[in-house]
Amino acid sequence: MPNNNYFNYTDQHYEFLYYLLSFAMEQYQDEDPLLSACAKELIRYILDMNDTENVVVTELDGDTLTVNDDKHILIGGTELYEPDLNPEDLKNLYCVHYDPSTSFTMVQDEGAHALYLPMKKVREICGKYPSKNPIFLQHIQFLDEQLNRIKSTLQNPLKQWDENDYRNFSSHLVEDSVIDMTRSVVGERIYMGYNPKYTHSLYWYYIPDDKLESMGVRDHVRAIYLYMRLNTINICYVSNEDDDLYEQKLRSFVRGIQRMPIFFDLSDYKEKIQYAQSIMDRLVEEFRV
To answer: Measured between alpha carbons, how far is 51 from 40 in angstroms, rounded to an integer?
Structure first.
């Protein structure tokens, strides 16, 4: 394999996924039968189909693939934008986020399905099909290198981490579902990206608008979510300056449970993340103005 890998120079990794899945089209199946079989297995995973169901990509339109004429897979990198579909079609829309560069925003309206496609799953499926396609082989090599970087980071003491290690750690939290991805994606958003002030940051577990309404703060606090920087977890409140009183009440409620931020290390980060998410759940269930 080449040392100079194309995928080290691009953040458009979702385009590889689009390329791979296109081999499930009838006109490309004979070009590389192994890639065609790989594409079909990956599509079955995305659509939660059984192994015996037939799979054919019947249309390509921008970043959207139509499967068997009735299901739509929207592939996104930095951000997903839903096509103009009616509510009935949204039920058959699967928004797939795939970005091993670990810098993304994922937003999805209610009504469609959402999926963060882990590198491990793509590597597992691709590893079954020994195609000689050079693009395919370079991407497998890139995935192996990324997964090895994550493994190396988790074996190093946290106090020795640099920016790359924090990026790898953030990727691990998403890849291995350490954070609650279902709560973070469906109807809301999850963001992971680089900010020089905060090193590699992770924002997740947004409280939905209807919950903000039931808490009595929707007209005053636009968003509440968890965010992580370095080895701390905190709660962010987004409000207007005139509504500081509501933010103060929210902060006071949280202080009654736990002083923020929450510090963690490699021995307890999973428990601390779960604890932070439980505080957000208590905010939703117990806080009322």
So the answer is: 9
Residue carrying structure tokens 């992971």: 192
SS (H, E, C) the chain: CCCCCHHHCCCCCHHHHHHHHHHHCHHHCCCCHHHHHHHHHHHHHHHCCCCCCCCCEEEEECCEEEECCCEEEEEECCCCCCCCCCHHHHCCEEEEECCCCCCEEEECCECEEEEECCHHHHHHHHCCCCCCCHHHHHHHHHHHHHHHHHHHHHHCCHHHCCHHHHHHHHHHHHHCCCCCHHHHHCCCEEEEEEECCCEEEEEECCCCHHHHHHHCCCCCEEEEEEEEECCEEEEEEEECHHHHHHHHHHHHHHHCCCCCCEECCCCCHHHHHHHHHHHHHHHHHHCCC
Name residue 66's beta-bridge partners: 59, 72
- Whole-structure pTM over 0.70, yes or no? yes
pLDDT in tens, 220-243: 998 899 999 889 999 999 987 766
Handedness of CA 248, 232, 186, 93 (dihedral sign): positive
